[in-house]
Amino acid sequence: MANTDKTADRATILIVDDTPENLGVLSELLQPHYAVRAANNGARALAIAASTPRPELILLDIMMPDLDGYAVLERLQADPATRNIPVIFVTALNATEDEQRGFELGAVDYIAKPIRPAVVLARVRTHLELKRARDRLQDENAWLEAELKRRNRQRELILASAGEGIYGTDAEGRLSFINPAAVALLGYPATEVLGRPAHETFHRGDADGPLRACLNGELGIQDCADRFLRRDGTWIDVEYTCEPIVEGGERLGIVVTFRDVGERQRYLAEIERKSNFDELTGLPNRNLLRDRLNQAIELAARDDEKLAVLLFNLDRFKNINDSLGHPAGDAVLRELAGRLLDSVPPGATLARIDGDQFVLVVPRQADSAGLARLAQPLLQTLAAPFRIGEREFQLSASLGAALYPIDGQDSESLLRNAAAAMYEAKAAGGKRLSFYTAAMNERAIERLETENDLRLAIERGELVLHYQPQVSLRSGRIIGAEALVRWQHPARGLLGPGSFIPLAEESGLIVPLGEWVLRTACAQNRAWQAAGLPALPVAVNLSARQILAQDLVELATSVLNDTGLDPNFLELELTESMVMADAEAFIESTRRLKRLSISLSIDDFGTGFSSLSYLKRFAIDRLKIDQSFVRDLTQDPNSAAIAQTIISLAHSLGLSVIAEGVETEAQLGFLCTRHCDEMQGYLFSRPLPAADYAALLRSGRRLALPEPARTANRTLLLVDDEAPVLAALKRLLRRDGYTLLAARSGAEGLDLLARHEVGVVISDARMPEMSGAEFLGRVREMYPDTVRIMLSGYTDLDAVTTAVNRGELFRFLAKPWDDDELLLTLRDAFRHYEIRRGHRAGAG
Ligand code: C2E
Ligand code: CA
Ligand code: CA
Fold first, then answer.
1. Would 406 be classed as within a structural domain?
2. Domain-terminating residue out of 401, 436, 471
3. pLDDT, tens digit (0-9, with 9 covering 90-100), for 369-421
4. Does 555 map to a domain?
5. CB atoms within 10 A of CB 480
6. Residues 384, 286 share a domain
7. Centroid of ligand 1 to alpha carbon of 541 (angstroms)
């Protein structure tokens, strides 16, 4: 890639020497490869160094009149503009002392006179490479720069030993000169070896070697590989050049320049490492991954082995960035990288290639069963919640796997196919691993086609709106409708929003789509009103992407204008994730929309991350309790508690509250007794085509509300899976005039509890599915005032203990029971219940 011979990429080199001959030699040598500038004195050199194009390297003669090389170097170093230009000193052969001083001042290297072309070119190339690597690093990011500085000392050490060693001999081959790099590389102090025969010292007296030939006056040798002996008896692998020193036809000796190959490679690897790592997580980045993957493929091909590429991607990571901001997203990624790294098998490479996209390359992977085992710990890294400041949340990820060689032969196709598999995992709901199959590419293409189709669908009018009625829980009357979009696909039939809204959001099509929905819903509502139907609001969903892409206030104003709908009959449904992207901006837009008299609600409330302190400042009108809580309302104490809390929260903020997805009488009963204001759900009506909704409005149909709580305190709930037991109890208890409810299972019992106010519950201990202990435990959490009695055989002691512990039983009765004792116990229990209620009524 880096081709110094290309003019576009030519480095500028400044050569400084007071002898015109030297300048001539150097520039002739360098000009074919570099842009050369020359100066024949120090002052001129400083001027050129500070001008543009700034030289990337300076070859500086030491011995010059006026300003000598040292002075020039000092001034270069003092000026921030020139400080980073590497300087190579050009010096007389045996000026060891000069060199020492030069290194101290910050020269990066030496070239000895007489000038040897190969040496000059090699060193110039090396130092330019180093400089460019360093510049690239510095440009790339501040972190690495800091990292470099921190490691500066270490780097210089490496440099010293990676630098070229030089020694010279006299005509007899005795060492006359050795530079610090050679000293470092070979481990001899200069004082010890000077004067000794080089061959015996470094080459074990190898009399026929090329060095000897060189000494004997044969031609110089270049770029040979050999090993030199160190003082400690070990050998180092070197590349070296050897040149005879000839003056006036007389052979004076040789100069050997050598470099430790291993050290140099280690050093280059170090440079490589620094430019190949991801700044945020410290993991290999895409570049390095490609290299590693290519290597792994080569090895796998050679050894006829398989290789797995796993792509790891967080589900809904966008939400975190959108709602908590990018610093939070970064923190999550850093934490995640750490966790992943801990669970990566030895020999595997983990890289971060983009956003929340991690790749794992695992050599020697034989089959998909092994892969599944491999994926497990990766998915497991998400088991523990993430914490950002005060918030704690759970994340999940999708994994896609592709195997070499079946799923791809090269890095590109392996990564692409692993990505296709990952998307497949995501489409299936995330939190799983998918293996690549050829069909996936087809599906990827299909997704593209769908996107195209969707674009056209908007133009062709294939989108339709359905309207789901919303009902008051006080009157049972319809109070409005939510507009829900569908796609009448020419080939695939009527598609729900789940199959195209996410795509629309990804592709940006959500903006025109959302505008169409808003316009259509407003126009439709206006048309209904014009047709004499009761004037009711219509609610329209907005996506977070929309709020980022356009000015909603402007859009709403123009749509209301165009359609002539009174803004009082429009409601916008916002989600919590929109809020946090830019809370202040969001608060401001809610206020402006409010001023237009548009109503606002927060959709899917309870699933996002909104903070209560913000909630108070939004100009909203109602909260929509998310379906997921409503679904489990009567069975799961947590959902019940959340729903209950949302209702109280809304009321204390002066907002109304609507429950979505209400499907059963039991849910309805719960919501009514908890004073939820409104509902929406299949129990009353599914979303309807416009004409059907209009017909429903015209019909005046109402939701049948549960009767308000009766003489509540005398209601008794019996739960037993055995019908004869229930029958016997009923017979017995009817005498005392209780209102009796009977259930055959815990679940059924909870349903009844949701719909009736029950004073006392008697439950069997042993029931399939939900045990008596479990059931009474839930009753206690959800209906703490209710008095709980357990019926059980003497043998179920364990169950009883658990129940007592979990459910705080009022009494435990053994089967078969004594009728009188049971009746007495019940009277006691109801008295107890009234006291509890009395306390509560008195307290609140
Ligand atoms: P949502 O806003 O939470 O809408 C309520 C969803 O619950 C609707 O699904 C509705 O049909 C469904 N639903 C209503 N009652 C019940 C019930 O009793 N039981 C069950 N199980 N489901 C019920 P739908 O129509 O499939 O819409 C799904 C989501 O697509 C919506 O969730 C909303 O987020 C999005 N969406 C729909 N229309 C639009 C639109 O025009 N723009 C945008 N941005 N999103 C839309
Ligand atoms: Ca909605
Ligand atoms: Ca919703």
1. yes
2. 436
3. 777 788 888 888 888 888 887 778 888 899 999 989 988 999 988 998 898 88
4. yes
5. 21
6. yes
7. 9
Q: Are strands 760-764 and 787-792 parallel, antiparallel or unpaired?
A: parallel
Judge if 561 and 686 occupy the same domain.
yes
CA distance 777 to 780: 5
Asked if the peptide bond before residue 189 counts as cis, ω within 30 degrees of 0, the response is no
Number of domains in the chain: 5
How does DSSP classify residue 714? G
Mean pLDDT over 221-244 rounds to: 82
Q: Is 98 helix (H, G, I), strand (E, B) or coil?
A: helix
Question: Do 472 and 601 fall within a single domain?
Answer: yes
What CATH number did the domain enclosing 661 receive? 3.20.20.450
Ligand 1 pocket check for 498: Cβ under 6 Å: yes
| Token pair belonging to 608 | 């996002």
Q: Residues 302, 430: one domain?
A: yes
Q: Indicate if the pLDDT at residue 121 is higher than 90.
A: no
| Radius of gyration over every alpha carbon of the chain, rounded to an integer in angstroms | 41
In a domain, 151, yes or no: no
Peptide linkage before 345 cis (omega within 30 of 0): no
The answer to whether 715 touches 826, Cβ cutoff 8 Å, is no
Which sign, positive or negative, has the C-alpha torsion 277, 278, 283, 286?
negative
Do 331 and 430 reside in the same domain of the chain? yes
Is any atom of ligand 1 closer than 6 Å to the C-beta of 235? no
Looking at per-residue pLDDT, the higher value among 268 and 240 belongs to: 240
Distance 318 CA to ligand 1 centre (A): 21
SS (H, E, C) 828-843: HHHHHHHHHHHHHHHH
Structure-block tokens of residue 341: 């790294």
* Residues having C-beta closer than 5 Å to ion ligand 2: 541, 573, 603
Least confident span in 200-204, 247-251, 310-314, 605-609: 605-609
Is the pLDDT at 307 greater than 70? The verdict is: yes
Question: Who wins on pLDDT, 43 or 268?
Answer: 43
What range defines the domain where residue 169 resides? Answer: 161-265
Please write the tens of the pLDDT for every residue from 714-729.
899 999 999 988 998 8
Question: Is residue 646 included in any domain, yes or no?
Answer: no
For residues 610 and 466, membership in a common domain is answered with yes
Task: Report how far apart, in Å, the C-alpha atoms of 173 and of each of 193, 209, 461 are.
Answer: 12, 13, 93
Helix spans in 231-388 (H) = 261-275, 286-303, 317-324, 326-342, 368-380
Q: Greater confidence, 290 or 267?
A: 290
CATH code of the domain in which 728 resides: 3.40.50.2300
Please give the torsion angle defined by the CA atoms of residues 523, 524, 528 and 534, in that order, rounded to the nearest 10 degrees: -90
17 vs 60: CA distance, rounded Å: 7
pTM over 0.90: no
Pocket probe mutation, ligand 1, options 463, 499, 505, 541, max atoms within 8 Å of Cβ: 541
Q: For the domain that residue 233 is a member of, what is the CATH number? A: 3.30.450.20
Is residue 555 predicted with pLDDT exceeding 90? yes
d(CA 385, CA 398): 17
Question: Residues for the chain: how many in total?
Answer: 844
pLDDT at 841: 55
Question: 294 and 242 in one domain?
Answer: no
Q: Are residues 318 and 367 in the same domain?
A: yes
